[in-house]
Amino acid sequence: MRSIKLFAAAALLLIGGVTAAQQSAPLAPTLAPAPAGKPVIAAATPAAPLGEGQAPLNKQDLDAWLDGYMPYALKTGDIAGAVVVVVKDGQIVSKRGFGYADIAKRKPVDPDLTLFRPGSVSKLFTWTAVMQQVEAGKIDLDADVNKYIDFKIPLKDGKPVTMREIMQHTTGFEEHGKDIMFYDAKNLKTLGNYVKEGLPHRIFTPGSTPAYSNYATALAGYIVERTSGLSFDDYIDQRVFKPLGMAHSTFRQPLPTQFTPLMATGYPQASEDPIKYEIVGPGPAGSLASSGTDMARFMVAHLNQGAGLMKPETARIMHDSPLTVVPPLNRMELGFFETNINGRQVIAHLGDTTVFHTSLHLFMKENVGFYVSFNSAGKNGAVGALRGAMFQDFADRYLPSIAPADGKVDAKTSAEHAKLMVGNWLNSRRDETNFMAIGNLIGQVAISVDGKGNLVVPAAHALNGAPMKWVEIAPFVWRQVGGHERLAAKVVDGKVVRWSFDGVSPFMVFDRAPASQSAAWIMPLLYASIGILLLTLLQWPVAALIRRRYKAPLALEGRARQAYRGVRAGAGLVLIMLVGWMIGFSKLTGDIANLTASSDGMLWSLQILGALAFVGGVLLAGWNLWLTWKDKRGWFAKLWSVLVLIAMLTVLYVAWTFGLLAMTVLY
């Protein structure tokens, strides 16, 4: 789950998909798992020759590094607590708790017992279950998933949804945020009802465009239920947790009572009041609660070719079936995604609820796993930057670069390439058929160049919060100055048509906004239109007061007077509806409890009344313009009547194009 803008709802949404599957026959593990309830035994590994600038990855050095890193980071970020676990060669190098699981009780984090919510890292368990079912011959990665379910997913451009596309987030589904998270268990639906009632529209040709989908992960979990004959929760308990001895882990919601005393409390910031236990609607996408030591067991299993979970050949398919969309950036595997660093192969997943934030990274060739989870978002979302920096700093210290040196593109060519990137871009993870599509207008990424011809990308920020600085290292491939991040573009017929950067490239890309939706002209026109409507409304009482002061009558009669009053009333109603939508969106994204059916009445009212106001406003403005010109009034009255009509048409265009008139509560 990742992180919130007003119309992006990123922090409210899970970040990756989850699928679960079950076998009818017992697995044949290649390595005996740890006994249930007992932690993996920490052990020192034989010292290996260290590279230049490389620290030894042992408990002594790692603990010293963490002790110098974490307390200060938590305090300055206003973060309550964290758990960190590092594994190597099948053993725990170190497992540490920092800060508090419960601030009021001064309860410290215990890596063996304290449960954290890893958000979308949960999806890795779902994908593990799916691959078990693939191994059992019950799921075909490339078959139409309609064969496994009891409802119909329509074709898109003649193509069905496949499990491979689900696992690689290329199903074509638009974003789905309703019932994503809430606090009241009465909103929790069965997995079958969730996927049937919440089926999103497909806006991309399957396989063509990565667009992260929690819904698709829930769908995969439902398919596991259908093919295994077990509920998703039972499947994970029996086929994943039990073989690995993960006795302090559960997907079940609400949290089972035996785990309640172990659960870490979640805080927006350590200095703020805690929130209630978050219930995840698409459970397979993010409902896991687990201890640090249990997550170590899971990492060890995958680093050891799926030992205890699947055959080595199945694990290799899962870990190394990359989908290349924008080379040479990180790619999506089957459920995992690449977070390659320092020339090393790393597969990973990140996860976010509103307050818990997590990352899991597996260095496949080095047999090293890194896991960290926090129970606070922190001041100004500090945990997002901290999580990324911590992974990079860990890699730089213990697994430094073995990659060849970056290349360089000459300044003239680089400036030309940067100019080709200029424009407004849409995130592929988006809504198009409902009111949340307004985010496609206000959330566009506007790329520009500075006075020296350097690329400026507001969507990518450095640790200090400022936009990253870039240097081109190969044609249309840029590296963050002094950092690890890369940005690359896809060029077709000499034009840049798509780009992304390593941090999101496996599951999101940016495509150029069509001219009809470009914020470059729509936003200035919309602001001007709102100003015109506001002046039109304010002129009404001001003019009335002036006329009363000088006892002057309104120099209009009959229909002209009606149109005069009507267009001003219409301007007021349009402005009221725009304010209503602002309040509505603030309510939706300000509290996850509102992303449920409880907001349906408000949303229907906004859409129906908005349609009446926006369409009615255009009709009134058109009538006023016709009468103004017909009666041959002064030039200013004629000009203003034209401006008012343009303003009304602009608002209607925005409302129609970006979903405010979609007449739906499926979002």
List keywords for this structure.
single chain, 667 residues, alpha+beta, 7-stranded antiparallel sheet, 15 helices
Write a brief caption for the model.
By secondary structure, this protein is of the alpha+beta class. It contains 15 helices and 20 strands.
How is the secondary structure organized here?
Blueprint: H1 59-77, E1 81-88, E2 91-102, E3 107-108, E4 115-116, H2 123-135, H3 163-167, E5 181-182, H4 191-197, H5 214-228, H6 232-244, E6 249-250, E7 279-280, E8 289-291, H7 292-303, H8 312-319, E9 337-338, E10 346-352, E11 357-363, E12 368-374, H9 382-398, H10 411-421, E13 423-427, H11 439-442, E14 445-449, E15 455-456, E16 470-474, E17 477-480, E18 486-492, E19 495-501, E20 510-512, H12 519-550, H13 558-590, H14 600-630, H15 635-657
Antiparallel strand pairs: 1-2, 1-12, 2-3, 4-8, 5-7, 6-8, 9-10, 10-11, 11-12, 13-14, 13-20, 14-15, 16-17, 17-18, 18-19, 19-20
